[in-house]
Structures are given as structure tokens and as C-alpha cells.
Amino acid sequence: MKSQKYQHPTSLYKDQESQKNKHRIDLLFIAGAALFFMIWAWQWNRFDLGLDGPDEWMRFDIIRYLTEHWDLPRGDNPAIINPIWGFSYAFHPYIPHIISALFIRAARFFTDDIHILVFTARLASVMFGTGTVWMSIKIARKILKDRADQWIFLFFITFLPQMVYLNAYVNCESMAIFSTAVMIYAWLLGMESRWDPKSCIILGTGLALCALSYVTAYGFLVCSFLFFCLSILLCQDKKWEFKTLFQKGGIVLLVFVLLAGWWFIRNAVLYQGDFLGIRSRDLCGEIHAQDLYKPSLHPTYEKDGLSFLQGVRAMCSGLGWHRDTFKSFVGAFYDTSVRLPQLIYNLYKILFAAGILGCLLSFRKLFSVRKDGGWREEGIFHWMLVLAVIIPNFLNLYASYAVDYQPQGRYSMPMLLPFMYFITFGITQIMDRLVKCQKARAIIKGALCFGLFSIAVYALRYYSLWIQAQ
Predict the structure, then answer these.
(1) Up-side HSE of residue 83: CA atoms within 13 Å toward CB?
(2) I need a surface site. Which of 113, 123, 286, 408 has the fewest CB within 10 A?
(3) What is d(CA 42, CA 54) in angstroms, rounded to the nearest whole number?
(4) Alpha-carbon gap, residue 47 to 257, rounded angstroms
(5) CA 309 → CA 313, 388, 397, 404, distances in Å?
(6) What is the DSSP letter of 341?
(7) How far apart are CA 212 and CA 267, in angstroms?
(8) Which residues pair with 332 in a beta bridge?
């Protein structure tokens, strides 16, 4: 029997106290992030400007209906159909709006002030944003060894101005981002535990949350399926164990069906088999929309006869799709017309470029999938993160080409966690190469975190001043 290394009781006590202090700091950071999101949600609560977030009026129609009738509306319910677009968002999952309606019904026991009720509805997004911060902490502790690097990752995610904004108005993107964090955490647990029941249950939960959130995050469903299969078939003690794959996959599928299956069954029953609701939404829009916005008449590059590549060239070279999308990924408010000073976008360009460069310099370390004649699970994990960055951007680009030209960074936001992981990894790799003094590196990393937080505070002040000027 192998003897255990003796640890002095005083040393053990200090380790326990250190862990408790780290846990307290994590909790304070989560609470601080939640408070910051709430300040944003309350700051522009002015009805003379209308509801501020993109499409927030259409989403409030669903919340209003839920609050008044306490019944799940069909997508083609006349009470919630938008008079311009001719459809409603009720064809797609609206779990955050159900939560918002619950919050409003609770708030109405105390007040009927419309400003407070709107703020209360936005707390659903605050809740999911806070959940993302919580899950990001758990992810950071597993994939980044240095604690300073972990904090850079957390500040990149938590205080990206657009991320804060999404967590401060009524939408489904905040839930979508939270679901991606749950899935990434499940991947990490699966790698550690060789996919024990806990990791399978968490993965099934993340998949369900993703399916019930927003279609732009659906790429993570593909990535999770691929990683789960490759991890079990290639990276376990026994290769190509399809029996194990089906057994553990059965747990994931069961959890997914129990949590998310009801919605898609409901859609299939309501809309003659259209379980996603997309075909029925377009049909509704064709009947009720104003002429310019009917799906068959709404102009797109695809209808103009351009191939996808031709459309991409036209959107990027002629209209600056990539520039507008980048800016609204970093931060663009109201109807995306309120943008930050160019200096902030340039700073993020520099940080992102440095992060990408650092990843390229460490390419083999990150993406090698073979080692000592076997498969390297960590390399597969990183390739799935790359795919999770690519898919939402492709869907965003394709939607502007074939459906409706909208260069909006929020449609690319499901890539937030994997993208910021790579940026953090790359930046810290460059720092570690260029700055040899450990204390100097710690100071620089702390300054970077402070700078990211300062940008978010400035963005809040900048938008507040814009609102006051209206």
C-alpha cells in the first residue's frame, strides 16, 4: 500500500482557508456581475424612447400575453403578431419570456409601476447572464492553470459591452450563451470522469437549454454530439466501444427529451409536423406582413441571383458587413445605431489579434490530436471549440445573405466562451514569452482586467448620456 505524504495540520488549515477565500472571491464576483447587469437593465428604462433592445417590443408582446392570460400562445395568435413582419416570436421557444412573466406576476403584488415591471421582466436575462458568469468561473478553473489567466478569461466574458447589454434587456440570446457554458463545462467533466452519469446529465441539460433558446446557438448541438462520440470512441481505454457510446448517450438523450422534448412535440402538433416552427413562421409572415416584409418579396442577395460567395463579397466589400458585425459584437446599443468611440473597437482589435497570434504560435500545443500513437482528447476538445466559433458566424453570414441583411454581432454571440478562451490563451502565451518577471506579468494581467472592466463602465456612462440627450 502506497504511503500518503504527511501534511502538517497547520498547512492543511491554511490550504482550507485559502480555498474558502477563493470561493468567497468567486461569489463576490458573481454578485458584482449580477449587480452590474441590473444597473444596465435599469439605466435606460425610459418609455419615451421605447423598449431599447433589438426586437424587445415583439418579445414583450409574448410576455404581456403570458402575464394576462397565463397560457402559452401559438405563434399565429393575432394578439401577438407583429403588424410589420406579420409573425411573432412564439413560433420559437420563449422560455426566458415565461420566466419574465413569472417575475412580473410576482412584482404586481407590490406595484403597477410600468418602469419597475419592465425592469422585472429584464431580470430573466440578468439571471441567465449571471449563470454564464458562474459557469465561466467553473470552466476557467479547469482549463486555465494560472489564476491570473483565469481572471482575464472571466473579465473578457463578463465585461464585453455587448455581453452586458444582452444581459440587460429581454431576449433569448442570454439563455443561449448560458447553455453553451453548461455544455463546455459538461465536456470538461466528461474528459475528467470518462463520462460518468453526472457529466452525461449535465450535457443533456445543456443540450436542452440550447435547443430551447436561440437557433444561432444550435451549432453547439453539433459540436457536443461530435465531441461526445469522438471522446468515447477514440479516447477511452478501449477504442470503438459503441456499446458504451449508446449506453451513455442514452442518458444524455433521455435528459434532453425530458427537458426539451415537450416544446418540439407541441410545435409538431400545432403546426402540422413543423417541430422547429420555421416553415409556419414564414407562412404566417407571408399572410400577415406588409408587402415589403413578406418572405417571398423581401429582397435578399440570394433572390438577386448571387451565389453565396458572390453575396459574401458584396456584403463585405460594398456594405461592410464584417465591420458592422465586429462592432456590434464588441458593443452596439439601442437598434445597434448607438456605437462606442472607435478607440474602443481598435483596442479590442489589438487584443483579438494578439490572442489569435498567440494561438497560432502555440498551434501544435493546442490542436495536436495524436500523441504517442494514441488520440489526444484535449486536441479534439480544442478543435470542437474552433468549430463552435465558426458555426454561429457562418449562420449569421448566411442569414444576411438568404433571409434578411442584418450585420449584428449578437447573432455571433454563442461563440463568446470558446472565442474568449482562445484570445485569453493566446494573449497569456505572448505575455509569458515576452515578460520573464512573474510579478511584472501579474501586474500587466491585473491591468488588463481593470481595463476591460473600465471599458464596460465607460460604455454604461456613454449610453446613459446618449439617452439623456434624446
Answers:
(1) 0
(2) 113
(3) 16
(4) 40
(5) 6, 22, 11, 16
(6) -
(7) 12
(8) 339
DSSP secondary structure of 141-203: HHH--SHHHHHHHHHHHHT-HHHHHHTTSS-SHHHHHHHHHHHHHHHHHHHHHTS-HHHHHHH
Q: Which three cell numbers stand for residue 83?
A: 403588424
CA distances to 99, 218, 267 from 36, rounded to whole Å, are 20, 28, 37
The total number of residues written for the chain in this structure: 470
Report residue 2 as a C-alpha cell: 502506497
Residue 1: the pLDDT is: 40
Neighbours of 353 (CB within 10 A): 13
How many CA atoms, within 13 angstroms, populate the side-chain half-sphere of residue 255?
18
CB atoms within 10 A of CB 47: 9
Q: Which three-class secondary structure state does DSSP give residue 463?
A: helix
Please state, in angstroms and rounded to a whole number, the distance separating the CA atoms of residues 125 and 434: 40
Q: Can you read off the three cell numbers belonging to residue 149?
A: 489567466
In sequence order, the 6+-apart residues with CB closer than 8 A to the CB of 258 are 208
Q: Tell me the C-alpha distance between 468 and 466, whole Å.
A: 5
Kindly tell me the burial class for residue 4, based on how many C-beta atoms sit within 10 Å of its own C-beta (0-12, 13-18, 19 or more).
Answer: exposed
| Reported pTM | 0.94
Question: Percentage of the chain surpassing pLDDT 70?
Answer: 94
- Of the candidates 264, 294, 73, 53, the one whose C-alpha atom is nearest the C-alpha of residue 165 is 53
SS3 content of the chain, % helix, strand, coil (to 5): 75, 0, 25
DSSP helix/strand/coil, 387 = helix
The dihedral of CA 215, 219, 220, 221: what is its sign?
positive
The three-class DSSP label of residue 282 is helix
Say if strands 370-371 and 374-375 run parallel, antiparallel, or are unpaired: antiparallel
pLDDT tens for residues 375-405? Answer: 999 999 999 999 999 999 999 999 999 998 9
Helix (H) or strand (E) holding 321: helix 321-330
The predicted model gives 312-328 an average pLDDT of: 94
245-282 pLDDT per residue, tens: 999 999 999 999 999 999 999 999 999 999 999 999 99
Q: Which residues pair with 370 in a beta bridge?
A: 375
Cell of 247: 449506453
